[in-house]
Amino acid sequence: MAAADVRRDAETPPRNEASHTRRVSSWREHHGWSAGASLRRLAARPLGSLLTIAVMGLALALPLAFYLLLGNVQQLGQALGQDQAINVFLQPDQAASQAQLLSKQLGDRSDVASVAIKTPQQGLDELAKLQGFSGALDALEQNPLPFVLMVQPKPGADAATVARLIGDLREMHSVAQVQDSGTWRQRLDALLGVGDRVVIALALMLALAALLVVGNTVRVDIASRHEEIGVLLLVGASGAFVRRPYLYAGIWYGLFSGILAALLALAIEFALSGPVARLSQAYDGKLHIGGLPAWLLLAVPPAAAALGWLGARLVSAWQLRKAA
Amino acid sequence: MIQFDKVSKHYDGGHEALSQLSFTIPTGEMAFVTGHSGAGKSTLLKLLGVIERPSHGAITMDGQNLAKVRGRGIPRLRQRIGMVFQDHRLLMDRTVFANVELPLTIAGIARVERGRRVRAALEKVGLLSYERQLPATLSTGEQQRVGIARAIVGRPSLLIADEPTGNLDPQLAVEIMGLFAEFQQVGTTVLIASHDLPLIKRMRKRVVVLDHGRLVADLAAEEVL
């Protein structure tokens, strides 16, 4: 090696001055390198990586499973609620003509789907069919049962609408009693409302847990490579340059755990499909149980990758500030 | 030009590593900083690399006050400085080529240009045939030369070395110093911290002598006996 060689090299253009295009090209190249290197690091310690991905995947799958369960309970409630009429018992002295009139008035309401009249005789016949009642009914001198109107609210009517309808029915003079067999439905709706909130809260908490898992994994990774980071900083690497492989690691953890979560959700859906089909048959096919929407399943991996990136970004920024 | 103007450095606990240090190193000069262990040699180099900050005084490099360099300015400044360490500070899981290439990758130099310059740097330090090896397979002297190749590959305006021959045999130490002298010949300012007095005398370069953080002698090349 001669001094002339060194001099010749020194005469070639200035130190470390790269054009903008070259810098962009090099920046892209480093992104590619960081993505590959971080993936290789994950593969280099398969057990640790798999455990991290499994924990994150399970954390992300839980809200999906709850979402699936809640959606299906809603469907079940709607299916079962279709046949739940409000029974309106008229005063005992009401005649058939008045029952007809009232039935027509109620049938004209926008919140009522249909009204059926059950005569006192029909009621008595039903009672007679029940074991143990036939003897008692024979002892009656006259039929004590009133006309009953079976009012079916409009499908999809919410709890408030049904409650308003019941209130109006109770206000009527000719009505003795209103039996709301849909009360359970209101309670179910209220429970489902609580369930909705629980799913949102769970999703947020478990997303935070996934964020912390990634953050901690990246923190440990950075701690184990503090010497390398020190060297990079000494030779002029910027924080962004040093951070890049760790951000990609976060993205990989998130992406793989998102895929795992989507697969787990599909597995749960598949496991439920058999019993649900039998349940649907039991309701004459009226029960339509839905799975998770495709858009949601497709959105989970990229959303989880973004979550992983965020966790890695927060922790690496903090760790590198300490290292610098 | 590097200028130290009444530079002091105090560490937590009151230890004074440098005290009222003032001297100037013109561009393209090669100088040694020497003194006993604890004299402040390493601290002085750390201040130049913005690894430490002065407690008092100002250090200017080509008119830039290093005390005011913050944030993104630090990596930009470090890209203009080549640093050589006694413990080499190589990345042991990357090849010799990848280690030397690092400053160029950071600086955003294109791949083809990087390859050319890395091979030129490795040729200068006599390690071209080792480019695909991992540092762990090299001897201490060879690792040091990889460290030097990494320091010079970015054509820094300042080359600082902290005890670069500390772990080397005398013959290899002379070779390494010869390399530094060559870089000085092409206009790079070279500042070397060393306590190897026989080697320093042999090189016949300017010598800045420190004792307990104070400048006790500043000898021109011709004054070194």
From TrEMBL, chain A:
Show where the FtsX extracellular domain sits.
Answer: 86-175
- UniProt subcellular location: Cell inner membrane
Protein's UniProt keywords contain Cell inner membrane: yes
| Family matches, as InterPro entries | ABC3_permease_C (IPR003838), FtsX (IPR004513), FtsX_ECD (IPR040690), FtsX_proteobact-type (IPR047590)
Spell out the Pfam families in the cross-references.
Answer: FtsX, FtsX_ECD
* Region annotation (Disordered) ranges: 1-24
Q: Which membrane topology describes this protein?
A: Multi-pass membrane protein
User: From which domain of life does this come?
Assistant: Bacteria
Q: Which residues form the ABC3 transporter permease C-terminal domain?
A: 201-312
Q: Which regions span the lipid bilayer?
A: 47-70, 198-218, 251-272, 292-312
Does Transmembrane helix show up as a keyword for this record?
yes
Keyword list, A-Z: Cell cycle, Cell division, Cell inner membrane, Cell membrane, Membrane, Transmembrane, Transmembrane helix
Q: How does it assemble?
A: Forms a membrane-associated complex with FtsE.
Entry function: Part of the ABC transporter FtsEX involved in cellular division.
Instruction: Report the family membership.
Output: Belongs to the ABC-4 integral membrane protein family. FtsX subfamily.
Name the record gives this protein: Cell division protein FtsX
**Which source organism?**
Rhodanobacter humi
Name of the gene: ftsX
